[in-house]
Specification:
six-stranded antiparallel beta sheet; 16 strands
C-alpha cells in the first residue's frame, strides 16, 4: 500500500473549514463552497472533510451556526479565529471556547496517545461506522495532529480502518481521526509557486486520486479544508 502524506506547519499556514453546497446543509454558511478567489494566491493545499453529516455521528459548527449536535466523545477538528487547528475528543481534548470558529466532527478517534485505538478491528460499539465499511479495502483519508500541534493529512487506496490508523501513527500523529472514504471522496490537492513566482497548476497528492486537482477551485457539494499561508 502507498500512503500520501501532507504535513502542515502550523506556524506557516492557517486552516479554514469550507461548507459545501449540499453538505452540511441547513444554513447560509460563509463563503461560496470553493476556495475564495481572493485567497487562491496564498492557498497551499485543500483536502476533503468527513462523512456525510447524517453518517458522521456528530455535528458541524461555523461562525455561530450549526447543523446537527456536537457530540461529547466524537472525534473533532476545531479551527479557531486565528486559523489554528486542534484535534481530539470533544469534551476531553477540545471544546467550545470564545475563540472557536469552526468544528467538524466525524466518528471517534482512531489514534490516541500516539497509538491506534483498541477495538478498531471488531468495532463492537459501532464507533467507526458499520463493520462492513470499516473492513473494506478502499480509499481512505484521515487527519491527525503531532506533538507540536501540526496537522497531518494521510490518504491511500486499499486501506482498512486499521491500516489508516497505522499510517497516521507512523506519520507522527498523537491523535487522529478518519475523514471520508471511497474513490470519489478522497481528494487532496497541492498548490505551489514556481521559481518565477508564477502560480503553478495544482497537483494531486497522489496521482491515482480520481478527482481533478482543481476540484475545490469551483463550488463543491461537500465541505472541505483549506490551508493558506499566513
Amino acid at each position: 500500500m502507498v500512503a500520501g502524506l501532507l504535513w502542515l506547519d502550523r506556524r506557516a499556514v492557517r486552516l479554514d473549514l469550507v461548507a459545501g453546497t449540499k453538505e452540511p446543509g441547513g444554513q447560509s454558511w460563509p463563503g461560496s463552497a470553493e476556495i475564495p478567489p481572493a485567497s487562491r494566491s496564498k492557498t497551499v493545499a485543500a483536502f476533503n472533510s468527513g462523512f456525510l453529516l447524517r453518517d458522521s455521528g456528530g455535528g458541524f459548527y461555523q461562525a455561530g451556526h450549526h447543523v446537527g449536535r456536537l457530540q461529547r466523545g466524537a472525534a473533532s477538528i476545531v479551527v479557531d479565529k486565528t486559523g489554528a487547528i486542534s484535534l481530539g475528543e470533544w469534551g476531553r481534548d477540545v471544546r467550545m471556547t470564545p475563540s472557536t470558529y469552526a468544528v467538524r466532527q466525524n466518528l471517534h478517534l482512531i489514534v490516541d496517545r500516539s497509538r491506534p485505538v483498541k477495538g478498531l478491528v471488531h468495532n463492537g460499539h459501532k464507533l467507526w461506522g458499520s463493520r462492513r465499511s470499516q473492513l473494506q479495502w478502499t480509499w481512505r483519508s484521515g487527519l491527525g495532529i503531532d506533538a507540536a500541534g501540526n496537522p497531518i493529512y494521510v490518504a491511500g487506496n486499499h486501506f482498512t480502518l486499521v491500516s489508516l490508523a497505522d499510517a497516521l501513527t507512523q506519520a507522527g500523529a498523537v491523535r487522529g481521526m478518519q475523514l471520508d472514504i471511497h474513490t470519489p471522496m478522497v481528494t487532496a490537492n497541492l498548490f505551489d509557486l514556481g521559481r518565477s513566482d508564477r502560480r503553478r497548476a495544482p497537483v494531486r497528492l497522489l496521482p491515482t486520486m480520481s478527482r481533478p486537482a482543481d476540484r475545490y477551485a469551483a463550488p463543491d457539494q461537500r465541505d472541505f479544508i483549506t490551508a493558506t499561508l499566513r
